[in-house]
Amino acid sequence: MSSPTPIRQADVAAKEEPETPSGFVTPAPASPGHVSPDTGSRPSPAPAKKPGKARSRWLRLTSRAPEVQSSGLDELTAKRRAHLWVDNISKSFDGFKALNNLTLILDEGELRCIIGPNGAGKTTLMDCITGKTRPDTGNVYLIGKDRERISLIEHVEHEVAQMGIGRKFQRPTVFHDHSVFENLELAFGTERGVLNAIWGKPKAKQAEKIEEILTTIGLIDRRKDRAGLLSHGQKQWLEIGMLLAQDPRILLVDEPVAGMTHQETERTAELLKGLAGKHTVVVVEHDMDFVRSIATFVTVLHEGSVLAEGSMDQVQRDPKVIEVYLGE
Ligand code: ADP
Ligand code: MG
């Protein structure tokens, strides 16, 4: 059993820094008081009972379930800027436990990498966060600025997306016959974008925002080109740009560098590092060199649970991790 005392990431970083000059650079605005609990061994309460359907979403947003208050999570999140709390979720498929009492806390603005061997439950975890799959037990909470909690499992996928959780799947799904600029324009034209229109966001303002995104994703010179002409890596960046048009608070990115050239991989690392701080970024990735180049904090999944958490050096030294993953 590991100690229930949370590890301060600052302490971790201080120990690791000399060995990893290029990695583990915590984004400055993210969380000076970041505390990383040993979530794998922390017992969590039973999931909160679902409130009646008739209650408005906003009522639910601002109410705090008594189960939550008594769970110890208040104590846990009080010391940190928790943004997303995956609370003890389990999910079975035909009796097979894809997720098994998984608990995970993400801090506002952090860049988290989730790694683990095939079948560890990474995609199922993303599915449970985004409302694609509902866990059998446990809950997923989005934590707001006033520390109000939204139970995401009561919402379907598009509602979760509207709340500011953007997900990028492995395969880019850009519109090939439209220009790069038009793809971004289309990304504004969804529900959140419509809201912008209602509030009178002028077209010029949108164009300005698109230019800003084009610069961020490094495609400013390709703005007039058909998206179909872009390389695989550039299409991935465009899709990240399309997610940014939705102004997500949390960005979930599934295997962003699969199929990319070395140079594209490096640029993707820079892009994701640049997005952290402004957004909470979660990257599921298999490429260990890539993870090393971007990760401040790594969570290793195995058989649907958290096997280890810490800096890349810490988890790579962990015998449990070596056995199940890095040594495979
Ligand atoms: P990872 O993304 O880490 O490779 P997954 O979350 O995709 O792992 O899968 C975890 C386990 O759950 C795997 O054994 C997989 O076969 C199983 N699984 C995932 N989704 C389904 C599903 N819809 N039906 C049946 N089994 C599934
Ligand atoms: Mg997967």
Give structural notes:
Helices cover 36% and strands 21% of the residues. The protein has a single domain (7-164, 248-326), classed as Rossmann fold (3-Layer(aba) Sandwich). It has 328 residues and is an alpha/beta fold. α7 crosses α9 (203-216) and α7 runs parallel beside α10 (232-244). Mean pLDDT is 77; it is low at 1-72. Strands 8-9-10-5-11-12 form a 6-stranded mixed β-sheet, with helices on both faces. A 4-stranded antiparallel β-sheet has the order 4-3-6-7. It has a two-stranded antiparallel sheet with strand order 1-2. The site of magnesium ion (MG) has 2 residues, from α5.
Descriptive keywords:
328 residues; alpha/beta; Rossmann fold; six-stranded mixed sheet; 14 helices; 36% helix; disordered N terminus; binds magnesium ion
According to CATH, the homologous superfamily is P-loop containing nucleotide triphosphate hydrolases
Tell me the CATH topology. Answer: Rossmann fold
Number of strands: 12
Taking all Cα atoms into account, the compactness measure Rg is: 20 Å
Question: Which molecules are bound besides the chains?
Answer: adenosine-5'-diphosphate, magnesium ion
Overall tally of domains: 1
Write the layout of secondary structure elements.
Layout: E1 7-8, H1 9-16, E2 35-36, H2 57-62, H3 66-69, H4 73-78, E3 82-93, E4 96-107, E5 111-115, H5 122-129, E6 137-143, E7 149-151, H6 157-162, E8 165-168, H7 180-188, H8 191-198, H9 203-216, H10 232-244, E9 250-254, H11 262-275, E10 280-284, H12 288-294, E11 297-302, E12 305-310, H13 312-317, H14 319-326
Helix pairs in contact: 7-9, 7-10
The protein binds adenosine-5'-diphosphate (ADP) and magnesium ion (MG).
